[in-house]
Write a structure and sequence with these properties.
single chain, about 190 residues, mainly alpha, about 40% helix, globular
């Protein structure tokens, strides 16, 4: 992803045991894993400042929580529904999480009712996104040669024969709209 000032944000995933670190640095590990990929990936990796390369284990919600709130406290984003980055929705879902209670917690509405409504609206949607991202993540980390050949063939066939299928995982996600009426307008 291009950023301002000529900078770039990129991420890569690999199925590795948690907590590991490359003895010679994370950039060196990226070059080993992805340095022979297509242009511009090797150039981007070579240009990366080794100190700017972060390695983080990725966790996902093992099971849906019973609620996104307890009492007067509500959680949002990765605190309540951690997900893999495969759909690029972690930050998006956190923003949606913040918008919904802002609409529900009107001055004349009870906080308990607003937080219950927040859980009711957000829990099914976010857990659906978590599961979709997890499914894509599993496919992208297939490691056996036959599985990788199958994945590559499916991706090539999809791109050639039905390019719209590539965007299908975002159906019902990217078209989210905030609740009707805005808290700022008082409606």
């Amino acid at each position: 992803m291009p950023l301002t000032g000529g900078r770039i944000y990129a991420y890569a995933t690999a199925a590795v045991p948690p907590g590991g670190r490359a003895a010679d640095g994370e950039r060196a590990e990226l070059l080993r894993r992805f340095g022979n990929w297509h242009h511009p990936i090797p150039r981007l990796l070579a240009a990366a400042d080794p100190a700017a390369v972060l390695r983080n284990d990725v966790y996902t919600a093992a099971a849906p929580p019973p609620a996104f709130h307890r009492g007067r406290v509500a959680l949002l984003g990765d605190a309540v529904h951690p997900m893999t980055p495969n759909l690029g929705q972690g930050g998006c879902q956190a923003i949606e999480d913040a918008v919904v209670p802002a609409h529900l917690a009107a001055p004349d509405a009870g906080l308990a009712a607003a937080l219950t409504a927040y859980t009711r609206q957000r829990l099914p949607r976010t857990m659906d996104v978590v599961r979709r991202a997890e499914r894509i993540g599993r496919i992208t980390t297939w490691r056996t040669r036959p599985a990788c050949v199958l994945r590559a063939a499916l991706m090539a066939a999809t791109a050639r024969l039905a390019p719209d299928l590539v965007l299908r995982p975002l159906d019902g996600i990217a078209d989210w709209r905030p609740p009707a009426g805005t808290y700022a307008s008082g409606t």
